[in-house]
């Protein structure tokens, strides 16, 4: 076993697949217990870096355990996620949501930089293969892929796991919502007000 210190940029920047095996539990993080503390840490570090860039502020996100996996037909480096799938999933959803906001506001460079961390280049995947770097093999597969591949902004009321690609464009953006039974999404307007919580299968409970 080898141990390395990696930032999210260093972890996600290469063309690769992170695979959540079937035996992993569903996505269970929620707003109060995990998202809000994580967002507070991200804001704190970001604001400190902008205010005092010479400090090179950092935050420890916790350990992630990966196991090398035989590459598929596309020869992409592939890792089985043994521990840390909740954090990796949340970071991917957060980066994709931020990329969507940058796209809407015309900040194309930042949007493209974040997309590079969540999606592999088409040059590295098969013609009909998913570009997503994080691949769920458990029950979260359909909902995660639906949210991550929809063009921003996303109408989550049209997201149905039994109908891939059914998300429609709307004036709202799609953010994750979880309550212990898998990946869900909630609606947040540009003004920050909550609309009816919807999901790619069932409503959020809050």
Key words describing this protein structure:
206 residues, alpha/beta, four-stranded mixed beta sheet, 32% helix, globular, disordered C terminus, GmrSD_N, GmrSD restriction endonucleases N-terminal domain-containing protein
Topology:
Blueprint: H1 8-12, E1 16-20, H2 31-51, E2 65-69, E3 77-83, H3 85-104, H4 108-118, E4 134-136, H5 141-149, E5 154-155, E6 168-169, E7 173-177, E8 184-188
Parallel strand pairs: 1-3, 1-4
Antiparallel strand pairs: 2-3, 5-6, 7-8
Describe it for me?
The chain has one domain (15-47, 64-188). The chain has 5 helices and 8 strands; from the N terminus they run H-E-H-E-E-H-H-E-H-E-E-E-E. The chain has helices spanning 8-12, 31-51, 85-104, 108-118, 141-149; strands spanning 16-20, 65-69, 77-83, 134-136, 154-155, 168-169, 173-177, 184-188. The strands form 3 sheets. Strands 2-3-1-4 form a 4-stranded mixed beta sheet. It has a two-stranded antiparallel ribbon with strand order 5-6. Helix 3 runs antiparallel to helix 4. InterPro entries: GmrSD_N (IPR004919).
Poorly predicted segments:
160-166, 168-181, 184-206
Largest sheet: 4 strands, mixed
Measured between the Cα atoms of the first and last residue, the distance is 41 Å
Specify the overall morphology.
Answer: globular
Residue fraction in strands: 15-25%
Helix content: 25-40%
The strands making up the biggest β-sheet line up spatially as 2-3-1-4
Q: Helix count, per DSSP? A: 5
Structural class: alpha/beta
């Amino acid at each position: 076993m080898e141990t390395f210190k990696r930032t999210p940029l260093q972890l996600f920047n290469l063309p690769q697949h992170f695979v959540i095996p079937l035996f992993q539990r569903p996505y269970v993080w929620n707003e109060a217990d995990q998202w809000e503390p994580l967002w507070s840490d991200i804001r704190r570090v970001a604001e400190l870096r902008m205010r005092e860039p010479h400090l090179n502020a950092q935050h420890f996100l916790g350990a992630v355990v990966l196991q090398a996996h035989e590459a598929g037909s596309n020869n992409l480096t592939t890792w089985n996620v043994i521990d840390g799938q909740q954090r990796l999933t949340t970071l991917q959803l957060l980066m994709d949501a931020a990329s969507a906001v940058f796209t809407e506001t015309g900040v194309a460079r930042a949007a493209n930089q974040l997309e590079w961390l969540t999606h592999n280049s088409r040059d590295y995947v098969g013609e009909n293969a998913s570009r997503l770097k994080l691949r769920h093999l458990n029950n979260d597969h359909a909902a995660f892929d639906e949210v991550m591949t929809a063009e921003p902004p996303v109408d989550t009321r049209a997201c149905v796991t039994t109908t891939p690609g059914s998300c429609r464009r709307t004036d709202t953006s799609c953010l994750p919502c979880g309550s212990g039974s898998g990946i869900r999404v909630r609606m947040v307007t540009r003004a920050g007000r909550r609309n009816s919580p919807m999901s790619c299968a069932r409503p959020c409970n809050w």
